[in-house]
């Protein structure tokens, strides 16, 4: 199949709505814009939350509370299953090695290792956090779980 052979599925393409072409067309007179007023005019747009000059709801309500979005700490998560699939030449695993392997985004420093899956070889894993099961499985396989 080539690009010029692609076709839309039946029903995907609709005919253009022709407004203002008389009452017989179904979109005559006001052309689907209702009666008179601001929204009937061309070029009109009312911003979201505008209530015609009345005190808007978002200004009536109190603004209290705290949002942690700017101050949050994002933690990249890696499972033991993913560590087991790493290249055999890799023995020391840290954030840099994980980013190189494509398991986390480059530049992420805080990594947590979770215990989903199994690990069969001894790896020296350096991460900010480990789940209890992950730490246990890494040490059982003869590796080290270093918090750092």
Summarize this structure briefly.
This protein has helices spanning 57-60, 80-84, 95-101, 132-140, and strands spanning 76-79, 92-93, 111-114, 124-127, 129-130, 144-147.
Question: Can you walk me through this structure?
Answer:
The protein has 148 residues and is of the alpha/beta class. It is 17% helix and 14% strand. It is built from 4 helices and 6 strands. It has helices at residues 57-60, 80-84, 95-101, 132-140, and strands at residues 76-79, 92-93, 111-114, 124-127, 129-130, 144-147. The strands form 2 sheets. Strands 1-3-5 form a 3-stranded parallel β-sheet. Strands 2-4-6 form a 3-stranded parallel β-sheet. The two termini are 52 Å apart.
- Supply Rg: 30 Å
Bin the helical content.
10-25%
Count of individual beta strands: 6
Order of H and E elements: HEHEHEEEHE
Q: Specify the biggest β-sheet.
A: 3 strands, parallel
Distance between the amino and carboxyl termini: 52 Å
The gross shape turns out to be: elongated
**Estimated share of beta-strand residues:** 5-15%
Question: What integer is the average pLDDT?
Answer: 93
Uncertain runs:
none
Strand order of the largest sheet: 1-3-5
Number of helices: 4
Specify the structural class. alpha/beta
Task: Provide key terms for this protein.
about 150 residues, alpha/beta, three-stranded parallel beta sheet, 4 helices, 6 strands, about 15% helix, about 15% strand
Give the helix/strand layout:
Layout: H1 57-60, E1 76-79, H2 80-84, E2 92-93, H3 95-101, E3 111-114, E4 124-127, E5 129-130, H4 132-140, E6 144-147
Parallel strand pairs: 1-3, 2-4, 3-5, 4-6
